[in-house]
């Protein structure tokens, strides 16, 4: 995979990881309720769940492109519509949402279990990844290239939420996030809508 193409993939995966939602709320809750270790544990195990869905998506996309190109196009547009819906939801979130979780006492074991369950319990991740990875997967793509895509999704998702957990372990960070939550949501919303339009435009070359 060319470096320029991988950088596009990394940027899109980062945009998806940074979007507000239940995953961010999960990491925030475990960090605030148990400290840095539970927060990082939730982040890592959530990334493993995300990697499972990314693996399913990558291996299924190539076959879908070859056997049912019209169905693949329809699924891709549905994915784009989902991205746009996430963007609109973020724009309307204001100061509330995932940046104002209820802090409860937690443990690394609970964090690991919930991290996986939040990822695997969200089948919409399949649609999300179809929209994202349809830009990069081709029928003739090698196993190594597919593995790089899955590893990129895991590392970026886990890395982002680990950074969130580490950052929130410092008491000054959360108040800053809460004060600027509306701007974070607005920026994320605009980027997700732009990504949806990019998906409709066709694959990145």
Automatic annotation (TrEMBL):
Q: Where are the membrane-spanning stretches?
A: 41-64, 71-88, 116-136, 143-163, 183-201
Q: Name one GO molecular function term.
A: amino acid transmembrane transporter activity
Localization recorded for this chain is:
Cell membrane
Give yes or no: UniProt keyword Transmembrane: yes
Q: Primary place of residence?
A: membrane
Stored InterPro entries: LeuE-type
Record keywords: Transmembrane helix included? yes
A GO CC annotation given for this chain: plasma membrane
The UniProt keywords, alphabetically, are:
Cell membrane, Membrane, Transmembrane, Transmembrane helix
Q: Which residues form the signal peptide?
A: none
Q: How does it sit in the membrane?
A: Multi-pass membrane protein
Report the protein name in the record: LysE family translocator
Originating species? Vreelandella alkaliphila
